Amino acid sequence: MTVMPVIVAPDQRLKAKCQPVENVDSDISRLMDNMLESMYAANGIGLAAPQVGISKRIIVVDVAKKGETPSPILIADPKIIQKSEEIALNEEGCLSFPDYYADISRPVEVTIQYLDNHNEPREINADGLLARCLQHEMDHLDGVLFVDYLSYLKRNIILRKLTKSKKMEK
Ligand code: ZN
With 80 as the cut, is the pLDDT of residue 170 above it? Predict the structure, then answer.
């Protein structure tokens, strides 16, 4: 398996709307495995394909805590078919925004349909951290980042700081 570097914002590749997969073949399945490996290597609980520069509707998540049995979910073409009216405010971070966290409001519970790594249609009902993680990763597929929920001012402060630290690395 290959660990792919995670793209850090601001980057145009994180703002694009991704293409549907439609058929999970062996190449896509391998990509899912590599994304999972990359996510674990970065200590993340979710990763979307555009974060590794691939404009396809693929996400991987695993919200198991350290020491618990890993429970990876490999997802292509996810669609939310139901979401709760109840909204929760909770802290979120993102591998593309290292060291930045913000409180974001999202539905507490969602049901999504998707294709798994064997091209099988599946449905999952999630709440709590998993529901939040799924919604965050699905947003990435439409070029939506968690900072887009913040005020213009807050978002710009974060993006300016990230731009500055990118320049310092060069
Ligand atoms: Zn993210």
Answer: no
